[in-house]
Design a protein that fits this description.
Helices cover 82% and strands 0% of the residues. The chain is an all-alpha fold. It starts with a helix and ends with a helix.
Length: 80
């Protein structure tokens, strides 16, 4: 396992952890904590995919990042 696979594995753990927190009612779907954990996970997976490319996985992570950033911005505007 090379460093990029390890980075991707850590990214996967972030995303799974965020989902677990949501299902365990430890965070709300709109919480910044949930969104940041998801964002970090997706970014780490993208880094891994830049070396070990898979188009389907790459695209889902790009959309994951876009949707997460949309959620963060939406919630910031809503609070303002």
């Amino acid at each position: 396992m090379d460093i990029f696979q390890i980075i991707g594995f850590i990214g996967m753990l972030f995303i799974v952890y965020a989902y677990f927190l949501l299902q365990a009612s430890k965070v709300e779907h709109s919480s910044l904590k949930f969104q940041i954990i998801n964002l970090i996970g997706a970014i780490l997976l993208i880094i891994s995919l830049l070396v070990h490319f898979n188009l389907g996985s790459f695209l889902i992570e790009v959309f994951w990042i876009i949707i997460t950033l949309y959620g963060i911005i939406k919630n910031r505007v809503k609070k303002a």
